[in-house]
Design goal:
Blueprint: H1 3-65
């Protein structure tokens, strides 16, 4: 293998590594944004459930307070 062939192989390997790094960055970004959105949706759902339970608790206290 000549020095020129060696340099061509190294350049090809470098391009491959750059492509893999770019794809890994894109996948990481997608998973990060997806995780943030899922966390926000779950937390808002939990807030709705918590508010509903507080409303139920208040109604129950009011009803039992009448007896």
């Amino acid at each position: 293998m000549s020095f020129r062939d060696y340099l061509h192989e190294k350049a090809e390997e470098s391009r491959h590594n750059e492509t893999v790094a770019y794809l890994m960055f894109l996948a990481g970004t997608v998973f990060f944004v997806g995780g943030l959105l899922e966390t926000l949706m779950i937390s808002s759902l939990l807030d709705k459930i918590r508010n509903g339970l507080c409303l139920f608790h208040t109604m129950l206290k009011t009803m039992l307070g009448q007896f």
